Structures
1.
Amino acid sequence: MKTNIIFIAALLYVIITMAFSTRSDEGKQLYEHYCARCHGNDGTRGLFGAKNLRQSGLSDSAIIQQISNGKRIMPSFRKRISADQIYAISTYIKSLRKYK
Ligand code: HEC
C-alpha cells in the first residue's frame, strides 16, 4: 500500500515537471521563431524600433494584447498562433527581464 502511494506520487511528480518544462521550452521556441528577428534572442536587438523586452514593464494583460494585436511595425499574431502559444511566449519574455 505504502509503496503504491510513493509510486503514484513519483509518477505525478514526473508528469507535472514534464508539463511545465515543455511549456517554457515552447515559449522559448516560439519566441525565437516569431519574435527574435526584431527583438533579438535576449530581447535587446531593437530592429525597426522594437522595444527592449528586458526593460519592458508591461503587465501580463498588456503583453498578451500587444502580441495579439501588434503595434505600429510590430505585426499582429492573433491569426498566426493560438492563445495558448501567446500565453507561453508572454511567460517566456518576462523571464528575459533584468529585474523580475
Ligand atoms: C517586425 C518586427 C517585430 C516582430 C516580428 C515582433 N515585434 Fe514586438 N515590437 C516591435 C516594435 C517596433 C515594437 C514597438 C511598438 C511601439 O510601441 O511603437 C514592439 C514592441 C513589443 C512589446 C512592447 C514592449 C513595451 O514595453 O512597450 C512587446 C511585449 C513585444 N513587442 C513582444 C513581441 C513578441 C512576443 C513578439 C513575437 C510574437 C514580437 N514582439 C514580434 C517589433 C516587432
2.
Amino acid sequence: MRYLILGCGPAGISAAKAVRGKDKKGEIVVITEEQGPPYLRPLLTELIMGRADVAGIADPQAQNLADRGIEVRRGKRAGKIDSAGNRVLFTDGAEEAYDVLLVATGGKPEIPPLLEKEHPSIFPFDSLDDTLRIADRVPRSGTVAVYGPGFLAIVASSALRKRGNDVVWFQPDLPRSGYPISGELEANILDSVRNTGVRIRDGQDIVAIREAGGGIEIESTEKGERVRCLAVVVATERIPAIGFLSGSGVKTGTGVVVDDYFRTSVPNIYAAGDCAELFDGGTRISRINFGWRSAIKQGRIAGENMAGAGKRYVREESDYFWALFGPALLDRIR
Ligand SMILES: Cc1cc2nc3c(=O)[nH]c(=O)nc-3n(C[C@H](O)[C@H](O)[C@H](O)COP(=O)(O)OP(=O)(O)OC[C@H]3O[C@@H](n4cnc5c(N)ncnc54)[C@H](O)[C@@H]3O)c2cc1C
C-alpha cells in the first residue's frame, strides 16, 4: 500500500503518524512545497519579535518521522491530480503514484490585487519565509501598516508593536470564514490592541499606494486620510490551497468537501486540516475548522481511516478555533 500525503503541516504529519499506527508495512510519503523543516506556524510572531529563532519554533510533532518509516520530500508543489490514474503531477514535472491520497495543503492568504505585487515594502505574512523577510527587512522602529480583517492581523499588529514599531492596522472588513471572535470578546480584544498603541482603522480599506521617500504612502477609503509608512504587512485571511484539484473530480466548495470520515467525493482521496470543508449532516452547514489543534485532530482521524479504521469525527465546539495552539489571544496582545 502506498500512502501519499500532500502538505507537511500539523494535519499532514499527524495523518502520516496515524497511518503508521495502523499499517506497519505501508509506504508513507509526505510531500510539501516548503523547503525547510516543519515549524510551528502559530509561533511565527516570536520570530518577528526576536524572541525565538528558526530552531526554536521547529515542530516537535515532526521529530523522528524517518525512524517511523515516514519519508518527507520538500520543495515539491502539487500541480494536478489524475484521480483516474491515481497519480499526483508536480509542477517540476515529476509524478507520484498512490493507493490512498490525503490532501492536507492548508490555506494561503487571499491578497487583494493592490497589495499582491512584488514590492520591497510589501510583506505578506503567512509562512516561515515570509516571516524571516519581515524580521530581516522591516525596520524595528518607524511606522508599519498592517492590512487584514481578523486573527492574523491582530497577532501581526501586536508583534510589530512589541518590537518597537508604530502600527496602523487597516481592518477592511470581517473575515469571510473562521472568525468566532465577536461581541464582548471582540470588543475586549480590540481595546487591548488599541491600548498597546496600535491605531486601528476599522472598516477602512486601502485604495491606493504610492512610493514615498523609501517607503509607501497609503490612501484609504477614509476621505483625505494618507498614512506614510516604511512597510505594509499583509496578514489576510487564509483560503484553502486547493487550486490543483481542479479537473480531478474531487468535489470542492471553499475547501475540499469531506464527510465525517474525511473522505472526499473520490473514494481513495481524503482531506483534512485547513483545506477541508466539513459538511455537518445535522445542521446542514459546511465549515472550515481553521486552527492548529483542529488540524492535528482531523489529520489523525483521516490517517486512521486511510488505513481502514472507519472512525467518525465527533464535532466539539472547542475544535473550532478556540482550541488554539499557544497562549490565549488576549495574553499575546498585552
Ligand atoms: C501567521 C499565522 C499564525 C497562526 N497562529 C495560530 C495560532 O496561534 N493558533 C492556532 O491554532 N492556529 C494558528 N494559525 C493557523 C494554523 O497555523 C493553521 O490552522 C494550521 O497550520 C493548519 O494546518 P494544516 O496542516 O491544515 O495546513 P498548513 O499548516 O497550512 O500546512 C499545509 C502545508 O501544505 C503545503 N502546500 C500547500 N499547497 C501545496 C501544494 N500544492 N503542494 C505541496 N504542498 C503544498 C504548504 O506549503 C504547507 O506547508 C496561524 C496561521 C498563521 C499563518
3.
Amino acid sequence: MSTIKEPTKTVLITGATSGIGAALLQQYNNNGFQVIACGRNAIQLNMLKNQALQTCAFDITCAAEIKANAQHVGELDVLILNAGNCRYINNAKQFDAELFNEVITTNLTSLGWLLKYLLPKVKPGGQVVFVSSSATILPFPRSEAYGASKAGMDYLAKSLRLDLVEHNIGVSLVHPGFIKTPLTDKNDFPMPFLLTGAEAANRIFKGVQSKKHYIHFPKRLTLLLKLFSFLPSSLWQSIILRKHNA
Ligand SMILES: NC(=O)c1ccc[n+]([C@@H]2O[C@H](COP(=O)([O-])OP(=O)(O)OC[C@H]3O[C@@H](n4cnc5c(N)ncnc54)[C@H](OP(=O)(O)O)[C@@H]3O)[C@@H](O)[C@H]2O)c1
C-alpha cells in the first residue's frame, strides 16, 4: 500500500531577520515548512536566502511596499505577524507624540495593511498568529506607547478570530514574557525569567500547531501577572511603583 505524502506547508513570518522571528524561521525550517522570510534589513535577508523558500523586503508601515511584495506570495498555511518595535516614554509630562505615533504605526496600524494584502493568501484550515506581549496583562511604567499598541493588537486578534470562523481560519494570540533579542538587549531594567529566542519559537510553534487561541510563556511570569491583575489597581500600582523606583 502506498502512503500519501502530505503537501509541504508554507509559513510567512514578518520580522524574520532578527530575534524571535529569526528563531521561528529556524523552528519552522526544522519542522519541514517552507518559509517566506520578511524584514527590512537587506543584508540579513540575503543571508537567509538558503534557509527560506522566498525572502521579501518591505517596511510594514508602507502599504505600497506590502502590496507589491504580496503579489509574489502564494497560498499560506500560517501567517505570523511578528515584526514590531518597542520604545519607552521617558518623560510622561512632556509626552513624546512622535515616538507614540511611530510605535502605534509600526505595531498596530501596520496590521491593517498586512491583513489587507496577506490574509487573502491564507488557506481555509490555516492560522494567523499575532505576536503581542505579556505587557498587556498589566500596565507598566513608560509603556504607554508599546502597551497601547499591543493592547490594540490583542483586541484586533480576538475580534478577527470571531469573524474568521466562517472562513475556517484560526487566530492565535501570543503573549511572550522577556525574550533575549536585540530588542530587549537595550533594556536597562531586570528581566525576570528571560528565555532565549529558540525557547520562545519552540513554544509558539507547538501552540500554533495545536491551533491554540492563546499562547503565553513563561507561565511562571504570565500567570503571576494574571494573578496580580486581579488585585485592586491601587495595590498593584503601589507594588509596581515601589519596584520601579527601587
Ligand atoms: N523580545 C521580547 O522580550 C518580546 C516580548 C514580548 C513581545 N515581543 C514582540 O516580539 C516581536 C519580535 O521582537 P524581537 O524581540 O524579536 O525584536 P527584534 O530582534 O528587534 O526584531 C524585530 C523584527 O521586526 C522587524 N521590524 C521592525 N520594524 C519593522 C518595520 N517597520 N518593517 C518591517 N520589519 C520591521 C525587524 O526587521 P529589520 O531588522 O529587518 O528591520 C526585525 O526582524 C515584536 O513584535 C515584539 O514586540 C518581544
